[in-house]
Amino acid sequence: MNLIFLLCIALFFALTVGMANGCARLKDKK
What we know:
This protein is an all-alpha fold. The chain has one domain. The chain contains one helix and no strands.
């Protein structure tokens, strides 16, 4: 497999999880 391709997927997954956690925290604070 292409290492750069896997790296992009990992980065995209990390961003998605990070945004989901951020939205959940904002909802809890309100």
